[in-house]
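Field guide to reading this record: the first block holds the primary sequence, the second block holds the structure written as discrete tokens, and the final block holds curator observations. Each block starts with its own label. This record concerns RNA polymerase sigma factor, catalogued under organism Fluviicola chungangensis.

BLOCK 1 — SEQUENCE
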Amino acid sequence: MRMIKKEYDQMTDEQLVIAMAGGDQRAFDKLYGRYSSALLSYFIRMLWRDREKSEDFVHDFFTKLIHRPELFDTTRSFKTWMYSVANNMCKNEYKKQEIRKNTTNGLDHTYAVSDVNKNTENQVHHALFKEAYNYQVTQLEDKHREVFEMRHFDGLSIKEIAEALEISEGTIKSRLFYATKYLAQGLKEYQPEHTKLP
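BLOCK 2 — STRUCTURE
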């Protein structure tokens, strides 16, 4: 059994899809294990932090993959293809919704400031920065936000993002530059020269 498990561990994503297309349940399980968490995180960020909706999207993605594995071109990288499909799923959802941005404001309610031994000022500063950062990211144009999040949250390379979105690497670099410049401007009050922490 261990030898079989080891063999699946050594298979590439593309090999797993081919095996899955042939009815191999273990290959699907391995592929799901590799990417379900990353895909869920992507959908949560893109779908207004709605975890339930995001979980449904992950389920829909893998259901489609099970029933129509031929949709995947095995000459491509599975990872970039997955993000390309996920991106299109989000765009279709945006069209169905009248609102596309998370309008929730306020501090992260899970952030505790009850411990009197902690540095309260530092905690408040961190919470306010987190709130401001999340807000500024939502203010980016969709095309700038998606490349910024795919690069910095999903850890994709510029080449992988370009392949997933089917646009040039130069365009990706340009959008990343714009997004970074916009965020730096919007968060400048939190930069060291503008604030003094204990």
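BLOCK 3 — OBSERVATIONS
Residues 149 and 166 are 16 Å apart (CA to CA).
The chain has two domains: 1-103, 123-187.
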